[in-house]
Amino acid sequence: MASEDTGDSGGFELTAVAANRFEIAGTPVVAEFVTPPGQPQELRVSRPGSKPQVSQLIAVTFAPSRAELRAFEGTYTSGEIHGTYTLRARDGGLAIEIPTRSEIALQPLFSDAFGGNIVGVATFTRNARGQVTGFTASAPAIRGLAFERKE
Q1: Distance (Å, whole) CA 36 – CA 70
Q2: Phi, psi (deg, nearest 5) at residue 66
Q3: Which CATH class is domain 66-149?
């Protein structure tokens, strides 16, 4: 199975056509795992008539402490969607509280970046003093959705 986001629900059934090559059943989409010499492993997803999407494997070495996680806690707003999210430190990661939704868990990916269902990858920004000032969310349906920290 393959999924377009970091959540556990949904996805697409894959059919193996070679040791490192898969097709999404009933489509012309092909996913291939490639390891270029001296480079991290890549996933190349090809569709007829478009440029292949290439993702590289990133080793997760970002394991923030509880104190480091608290630096991300606060209220964040987006003028683009007129929404407000509250972030809290939880069990080695963060949780986003969105009105009318269940809490969304975010797991550390790399320095100042967390991944989770719906928001995809949340990449945080800091000011010159190192304080967290906001984040951008990028997922299959959104790119660079900006949130500014209010408190």
Answers
A1: 39
A2: -60, -40
A3: mainly beta
d(CA 84, CA 75): 7
pLDDT in tens, 90-132: 988 999 998 888 899 999 988 899 999 888 899 999 999 999 9
pLDDT at residue 9 in the model: 55
Taking the C-alpha atoms of residue 150 and residue 140, their distance in angstroms, rounded to an integer, is 26
Residue 74 has, within 13 A of its CA and on its CB side, a CA count of: 16
Q: Give the integer Cα–Cα distance in Å for 95 and 151.
A: 16
